[in-house]
């Protein structure tokens, strides 16, 4: 639908004006005369672009006759120009119902149906309009557009050509022909069609937008910039066209030109704080924070009564880390007389600063003062709820949040905090539902989306996490945190190509971000494109030594591609540059071991252990090398020396316990696990092994209680061996129902786990479920294994 310079609509309105003039001479003071006068006045204001006054006049006319079609068409025109399509849809339906002969109204209604995805209704509207006026170019073009949507390219093109023969500037027809040409790969021809339409009528916005899209797709940058300038010259007061130009300029990194356009937008929107913020942000990018602050101050000086702008200034200073400057702004606003709402808002901002500074008690005092004045102040309630969640006062926080939501039911922040409170309480499903609503209410806000996606990932719903991130990034395409999280999700799903595509988007948003190469490397590793991994990470490693997973990925790529010597050379070079590079030594040892160069690997590990005796990686690898070589005594001596050098090295003690078990020294191993748990209470592996070993070696009530206490930390684990240990400890302590629940989970997550089948069978026997017990004991015997449990399983099976 055209909103400017519509020739046919202009003729339609001119004809209407003639009718009104005739009726005005016929009845000077009748309701009909006033109806005509109001409608004519509305049309005049509409022609001048004064939509507010035009609407008043049309509404006056409709008060006289609510079914007056000319006035309704005027209101429809206003809704169209304001892009209030919901209201426009209702008005057009009413017009068509009142006057079925309104061809243009049917066409416009059909376009709305098409935009809404209802091709059937759009086709019916087009056919009805064509039946009324077979030569109506817009009606024919509408039908062509519907056929295009239905993939009838030949029919769409034929009708579009027919519409253009009637009116060469029919925008929908031009769009159909251009789409057909572009789809066939001939973008030049598509552009020529659009240019032809603009030559017929240069004042059709949709054709200018089509031209911009084609030039961008064709990467004709200079032509694209010139086309933007031409559109702005035609519609200098249209902010939307300037915003499109700004986006292109930013894409092309023409920041100074973008700033000039943003300044013009701020001039055209004198009461819009966001427009000023856009200018400030680009000034910050061009000339730094101080220059940006100075620009902001100038805007404030020119608009002294714009309090919103002052609040935004305080927010900008806070974002820049100038907390003292931000506080000065907010204190000045709080000191204003006679405006309680401004004072409370400013006090809330000061409380937020205190929270940023870690001064929770002072923040709480300010919040309490605000709530003493206004006990339903939403911002203060949200801050108090946040503090209560941090303090573990989840139920009190929920009460505050419910109060806030009573007044602001669409508050995304309140729902996000509600989700946090319920997640802390353990109600993950309710937390997910609250965050899902918060995402919807916030318009896919990046921060809230990020929190929701992470919660979904913790709940192992990576598919929904990915969809949530994609939807948010459609609206906020340059949000780095969500782009990085999307890359992580795609790597988790082994969508290597998707991760690679996301890395490209991150690079476009932040070319220097090192995460780009790391994501690409992980994707290439998944694709077994080891040369790609080396290309992605090798150069970065030269600039700055890698560490962690990226370094391990690079070394793995060298090894997998048969270039182990290059990996060895790189790692030795890194060690020469930094003798304390423990990680490089570990990776070097692993690489040497894969080449069966065990002596070199062992020497490297001993050097690593000597430099960092408190770390466990070298101990583990040395221990395994020595055990594999049958050097058990040497392994034990190495562990004793490591423990003596670093008594708190839990890893060394765990391997010493393993060494003792391998030698059949179970009592000493039990004592070692007890020692580990004194040093690190709740260690999962030590707790599991201590409880399991205690159950094997002791059968008195005190030992059973100790085993159960140690195993309690294993609750909620997904490790079947941990669940088996927990279940057996619960059974031995007399809690057979809990034991059965955990043992069933253990077996659901494993196969051939004979000992767990025995444990479950024994638990079933304890509650009298003999048939179930026999089935489990039979499985235990069939699975086989070593230890006293297999004989006990046979004995119980024989007895039952």
TrEMBL record:
<dbReference type="Pfam" id="PF14559">
    <property type="entry name" value="TPR_19"/>
</dbReference>
<protein>
    <submittedName>
        <fullName>Pentatricopeptide repeat domain-containing protein (PPR motif)</fullName>
    </submittedName>
</protein>
<dbReference type="InterPro" id="IPR011990">
    <property type="entry name" value="TPR-like_helical_dom_sf"/>
</dbReference>
<keyword id="KW-0732">Signal</keyword>
<feature type="signal peptide">
    <location>
        <begin position="1"/>
        <end position="26"/>
    </location>
</feature>
<keyword id="KW-0802">TPR repeat</keyword>
<dbReference type="Pfam" id="PF13432">
    <property type="entry name" value="TPR_16"/>
</dbReference>
<dbReference type="InterPro" id="IPR051012">
    <property type="entry name" value="CellSynth/LPSAsmb/PSIAsmb"/>
</dbReference>
<feature type="repeat" description="TPR">
    <location>
        <begin position="103"/>
        <end position="136"/>
    </location>
</feature>
<dbReference type="InterPro" id="IPR019734">
    <property type="entry name" value="TPR_rpt"/>
</dbReference>
<feature type="repeat" description="TPR">
    <location>
        <begin position="754"/>
        <end position="787"/>
    </location>
</feature>
<keyword id="KW-0677">Repeat</keyword>
<feature type="repeat" description="TPR">
    <location>
        <begin position="35"/>
        <end position="68"/>
    </location>
</feature>
């Amino acid at each position: 639908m055209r909103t400017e310079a519509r020739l046919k609509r202009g003729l339609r309105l001119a004809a209407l004006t003639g009718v009104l003039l005739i009726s005005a001479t016929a009845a000077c003071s009748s309701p009909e005369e006033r109806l005509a006068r109001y409608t004519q006045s509305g049309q005049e204001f509409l022609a001048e672009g004064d939509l507010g006054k035009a609407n008043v006049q049309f509404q006056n006319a409709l008060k006289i006759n609510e079914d007056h079609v000319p006035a309704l068409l005027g209101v429809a025109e206003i809704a169209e120009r304001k892009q209030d399509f919901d209201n426009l849809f209702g008005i057009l339906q009413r017009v068509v119902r009142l006057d079925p002969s309104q061809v243009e109204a049917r066409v416009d209604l059909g376009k709305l149906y098409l935009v809404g995805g209802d091709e059937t209704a759009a086709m019916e509207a087009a056919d009805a309009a064509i039946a009324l006026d077979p030569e109506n170019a817009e009606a024919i073009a509408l039908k062509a557009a519907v056929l295009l949507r239905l993939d009838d390219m030949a029919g769409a093109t034929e009708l579009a050509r027919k519409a253009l023969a009637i009116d060469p500037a029919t925008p929908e027809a031009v769009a159909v022909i251009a789409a057909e040409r572009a789809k066939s790969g001939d973008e030049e021809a598509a552009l020529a069609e659009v240019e032809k339409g603009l030559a017929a009528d240069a004042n059709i916005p949709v054709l200018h937008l089509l031209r911009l899209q084609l030039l961008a797709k064709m990467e004709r940058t200079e032509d694209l910039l010139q086309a933007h300038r031409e559109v702005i010259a035609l519609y200098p007061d249209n902010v939307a066209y300037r915003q499109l130009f700004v986006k292109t300029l930013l894409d092309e990194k023409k920041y100074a030109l973008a700033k000039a356009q943003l300044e013009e937008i701020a001039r055209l929107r004198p009461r819009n704080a966001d427009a000023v913020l856009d200018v400030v942000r680009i000034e910050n990018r061009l000339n730094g924070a101080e220059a940006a602050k100075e620009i902001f101050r100038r805007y404030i000086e020119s608009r002294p009564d714009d309090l919103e702008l002052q609040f935004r200034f305080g927010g900008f200073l806070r974002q820049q880390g100038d907390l003292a400057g931000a506080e000065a702004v907010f204190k000045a606003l709080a000191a204003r007389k006679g405006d309680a709402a401004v004072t409370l808002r400013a006090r809330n901002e000061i409380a937020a600063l205190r929270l940023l500074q870690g001064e929770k008690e002072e923040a709480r005092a300010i919040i309490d003062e605000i709530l003493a004045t206004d006990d339903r102040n939403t911002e203060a309630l949200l801050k108090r709820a946040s503090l209560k969640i941090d303090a573990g006062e989840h139920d009190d926080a929920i009460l505050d949040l419910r109060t806030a939501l009573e007044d602001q039911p669409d508050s995304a922040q309140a729902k996000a905090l509600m989700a946090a409170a319920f997640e802390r309480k353990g109600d993950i499903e309710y937390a997910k539902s609250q965050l899902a609503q918060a995402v919807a209410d916030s318009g896919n806000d990046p921060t809230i989306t990020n929190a929701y996606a992470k919660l979904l990932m913790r709940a192992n719903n990576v598919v929904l996490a990915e969809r949530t991130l994609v939807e948010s990034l459609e609206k906020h395409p340059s949000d780095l945190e969500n782009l990085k999280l999307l890359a992580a999700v795609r790597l988790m799903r082994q969508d290597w190509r998707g991760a690679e595509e996301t890395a490209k988007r991150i690079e476009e948003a932040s070319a220097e971000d090192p995460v780009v190469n790391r994501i690409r490397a992980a994707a290439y590793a998944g694709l077994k494109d080891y040369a790609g991994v080396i290309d992605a990470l090798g150069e970065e490693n030269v600039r700055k030594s890698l560490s962690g997973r990226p370094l391990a990925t690079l070394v793995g790529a060298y090894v997998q591609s048969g270039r182990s010597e290059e990996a060895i050379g790189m790692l030795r070079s890194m060690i020469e540059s930094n003798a304390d590079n423990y990680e490089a030594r570990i990776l070097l040892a692993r690489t040497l071991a894969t080449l069966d160069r065990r002596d070199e690997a062992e020497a490297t590990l001993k050097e690593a252990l000597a430099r960092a005796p408190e770390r466990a990686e070298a101990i583990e690898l040395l221990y395994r090398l020595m055990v594999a070589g049958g050097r058990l005594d040497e392994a034990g001596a190495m562990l004793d020396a490591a423990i003596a050098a670093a008594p708190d090295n839990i890893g060394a003690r765990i391997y010493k316990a393993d060494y003792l078990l391998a030698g059949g020294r179970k009592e000493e191993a039990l004592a070692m696990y007890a020692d580990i748990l004194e040093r690190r209470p709740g260690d999962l592996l030590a707790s599991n092994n201590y409880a399991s070993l205690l159950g094997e070696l002791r059968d008195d009530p005190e030992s059973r209680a100790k085993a159960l206490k140690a195993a309690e930390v294993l609750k909620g684990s997904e490790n079947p061996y941990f669940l088996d240990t927990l279940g057996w400890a619960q059974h031995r302590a007399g809690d057979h129902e809990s034991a059965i629940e955990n043992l069933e989970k253990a077996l659901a997550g494993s196969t051939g786990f004979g000992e767990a089948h025995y444990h479950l069978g024994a638990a079933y026997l304890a509650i009298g479920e003999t048939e179930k017990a026999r089935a489990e004991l039979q499985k235990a015997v069939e699975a086989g294994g070593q230890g006293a449990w297999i004989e006990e399983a046979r004995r119980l099976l024989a007895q039952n």
